[in-house]
């Protein structure tokens, strides 16, 4: 998820990022730091050949965006993805291999996910190259996600990127997963200018940031326990849904059949006047409700449920979704107010990440945007979830 970073050509990175590009990744902590630009300007004699090629590329002059050709690799969690994109934003190809570990293990098992990535990475990258009708020798650089994510999974992508870069003498671009989610909208919305407010919502993170410029962000709110995507996945699993295509889509579909006001769940953090998120308590409310209704969801999947049982599950799903998104609305409204005080020129509210594919979420957050005179901007669903393009 890198191509929106190209105009800033080679700003410095942290020592941790430079280290990751030279050696196998170490475990990442799931914490939100202010985003940093993730290209390198290394110049010391000890700099690796890969890093020196970045300097050579920069000193040789900035090529036209059309001439830049990037291979992107993403293996941060349970999807193996690759894409080829031109520097002007034209997407030449996308390839992805999705794992179904969530169904069997009730969540992503890092070691199993690593093995699945290792089996799929060569084929996925080759497919992206073939579909774009290019070869490695045509590339300008290789971009790869280096975090946040599961360290075992990230290692697979970094290893593949380093291998290609070494063989073909290409620079490596290390990509911050969440910054890429924030900036991918600029790839498909050419008129999206700084500053803007961004909400990033996925299985592992909730994050509200004021994007003032490339590499300049103010964090307004973050996840203090579980992210909304995690809550959707767990609720879907507890309700006995088919989650082979993801817990979020399955729960959103079932919620259409239910009454969103039937279960009186409590909105998280209503008493806290900040922009942080918490979904652990709402998850617990859902679990206790299922248990109190004596639903045997572990033994009876939704496909085998009686009509009455299915309706009850649909009511729980709809009520959960209403409160989960209402929590988003509360925090976003406060964040909009804060952001407009800091940067009155803000015109756009960007919503990205896997959960941004949810149409109910988009509709409700569009109300927040319109209420405050902002334009809601969100990538197409294929660029919301993890992918090699962004």
Automatic annotation (TrEMBL):
Report the principal subcellular site: mitochondrion
Q: Which domain of life is it from?
A: Eukaryota
State whether keyword Endoplasmic reticulum applies: no
Q: Where is the protein found, in the record's own terms?
A: Mitochondrion
Can you give the residue ranges of the Gcp-like domain?
A: 90-389
Q: Signal peptide location in the record?
A: 1-16
Molecular-function annotations in GO: metal ion binding; tRNA N(6)-L-threonylcarbamoyladenine synthase activity
What SUPFAM superfamilies does this protein map onto?
Actin-like ATPase domain
Q: List, alphabetically, the GO terms of the cellular component aspect.
A: mitochondrion
Report the cofactors: a divalent metal cation
Q: InterPro entries from the entry?
A: ATPase_NBD (IPR043129), Gcp-like_dom (IPR000905), KAE1/TsaD (IPR017861), TsaD (IPR022450)
Among Pfam families, the record links this protein to: TsaD (PF00814)
Q: Name one GO biological process term.
A: tRNA threonylcarbamoyladenosine modification
What keywords would UniProt list here?
Acyltransferase, Metal-binding, Mitochondrion, Signal, Transferase, Transit peptide, tRNA processing
UniProt key word Thylakoid? no
* Enzymatic reactions: L-threonylcarbamoyladenylate + adenosine(37) in tRNA = N(6)-L-threonylcarbamoyladenosine(37) in tRNA + AMP + H(+)
Q: Which CDD domains match?
A: ASKHA_NBD_OSGEPL1_QRI7_euk (cd24134)
User: What does the record note about the cofactor?
Assistant: Binds 1 divalent metal cation per subunit.
Q: What family classification does the UniProt entry report for this protein?
A: Belongs to the KAE1 / TsaD family.
Self-association or partners: how does it assemble? Homodimer.
Cited function? Required for the formation of a threonylcarbamoyl group on adenosine at position 37 (t(6)A37) in mitochondrial tRNAs that read codons beginning with adenine. Probably involved in the transfer of the threonylcarbamoyl moiety of threonylcarbamoyl-AMP (TC-AMP) to the N6 group of A37. Involved in mitochondrial genome maintenance.
- Name of the protein in question: Glycoprotease 1
Q: Which gene encodes it?
A: GCP1
């Amino acid at each position: 998820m890198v191509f929106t970073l190209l105009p800033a050509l080679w700003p410095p990175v942290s020592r941790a990022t430079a280290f990751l590009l030279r050696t196998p990744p170490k475990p990442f902590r799931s914490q939100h730091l202010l985003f940093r630009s993730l290209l390198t300007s290394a110049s010391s004699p000890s700099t690796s050949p890969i890093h020196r090629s970045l300097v050579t590329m920069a000193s040789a002059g900035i090529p036209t965006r059309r001439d830049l050709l990037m291979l992107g690799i993403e293996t941060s969690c349970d999807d193996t993805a690759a894409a080829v994109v031109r520097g002007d934003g034209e997407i030449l190809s996308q390839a992805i291999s999705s794992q179904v570990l969530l169904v069997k293990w009730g969540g992503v098992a890092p070691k199993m996910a690593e093995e699945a990535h290792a089996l799929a990475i060569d084929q996925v990258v080759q497919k992206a190259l073939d579909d774009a009708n290019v070869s490695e020798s045509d590339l300008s650089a290789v971009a790869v996600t280096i975090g946040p994510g599961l360290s075992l999974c990230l290692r697979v992508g970094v290893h593949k990127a380093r291998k290609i870069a070494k063989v073909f003498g290409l620079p490596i671009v290390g990509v911050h997963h969440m910054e890429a989610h924030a900036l991918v909208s600029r790839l498909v919305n050419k008129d999206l200018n700084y500053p803007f407010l961004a909400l990033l919502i996925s299985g592992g993170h909730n994050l509200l940031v004021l994007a003032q410029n490339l590499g300049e962000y103010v964090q307004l709110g973050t996840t203090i326990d579980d992210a909304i995507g995690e809550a959707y996945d767990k609720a879907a699993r507890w309700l006995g849904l088919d989650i082979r295509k993801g817990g979020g889509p399955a729960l959103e579909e079932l919620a259409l059949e239910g009454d969103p006001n039937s279960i009186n769940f409590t909105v998280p953090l209503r008493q806290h006047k900040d922009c942080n998120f918490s979904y652990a308590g709402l998850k617990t409310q859902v679990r206790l409700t299922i248990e109190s209704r004596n639903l045997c969801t572990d033994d009876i999947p939704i496909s085998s449920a009686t009509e009455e049982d299915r309706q009850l599950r649909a009511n729980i799903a709809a009520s959960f979704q209403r409160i989960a998104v209402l929590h988003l609305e509360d925090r976003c409204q406060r964040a909009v107010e804060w952001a407009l005080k800091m940067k009155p020129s803000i015109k756009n509210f960007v919503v990205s990440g896997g959960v941004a594919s949810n149409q109910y979420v988009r509709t409700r957050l569009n109300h927040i945007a319109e209420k405050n005179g902002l334009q809601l901007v969100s990538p197409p669903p294929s660029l919301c979830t993890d992918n090699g393009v962004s």
